[in-house]
Amino acid sequence: MSLKITDDCINCDVCEPECPNGAISQGEEIYVIDPNLCTECVGHYDEPQCQQVCPVDCIPLDEARVETREQLMSKYLIITGKA
């Protein structure tokens, strides 16, 4: 699954620079995650870095975008040009 940022986001700006795939950007009101770029940090780290740094715990799994670890790794390989 990719991750999503909820309305609890306080726009603290700590998640965006932590994303190795550039999936996080400023939306109209809060930060947003591009599900096409989010790999939950698979291929880069053992845990999603945005979740690790978020001070308000507002970055859960996006239940609407179910992906296996293998699918996330495939996406990582495509994004990084290692496919």
UniProtKB/TrEMBL annotation:
<keyword id="KW-0411">Iron-sulfur</keyword>
<keyword id="KW-0004">4Fe-4S</keyword>
<feature type="domain" description="4Fe-4S ferredoxin-type">
    <location>
        <begin position="31"/>
        <end position="64"/>
    </location>
</feature>
<dbReference type="Pfam" id="PF12838">
    <property type="entry name" value="Fer4_7"/>
</dbReference>
<dbReference type="InterPro" id="IPR017896">
    <property type="entry name" value="4Fe4S_Fe-S-bd"/>
</dbReference>
<protein>
    <submittedName>
        <fullName>4Fe-4S binding domain-containing protein</fullName>
    </submittedName>
</protein>
<feature type="domain" description="4Fe-4S ferredoxin-type">
    <location>
        <begin position="1"/>
        <end position="29"/>
    </location>
</feature>
<dbReference type="GO" id="GO:0046872">
    <property type="term" value="F:metal ion binding"/>
</dbReference>
<keyword id="KW-0479">Metal-binding</keyword>
<dbReference type="GO" id="GO:0005737">
    <property type="term" value="C:cytoplasm"/>
</dbReference>
<keyword id="KW-0677">Repeat</keyword>
<dbReference type="GO" id="GO:0051539">
    <property type="term" value="F:4 iron, 4 sulfur cluster binding"/>
</dbReference>
<dbReference type="InterPro" id="IPR050157">
    <property type="entry name" value="PSI_iron-sulfur_center"/>
</dbReference>
<dbReference type="InterPro" id="IPR047927">
    <property type="entry name" value="YfhL-like"/>
</dbReference>
<keyword id="KW-0249">Electron transport</keyword>
<dbReference type="InterPro" id="IPR017900">
    <property type="entry name" value="4Fe4S_Fe_S_CS"/>
</dbReference>
<keyword id="KW-0813">Transport</keyword>
<keyword id="KW-0408">Iron</keyword>
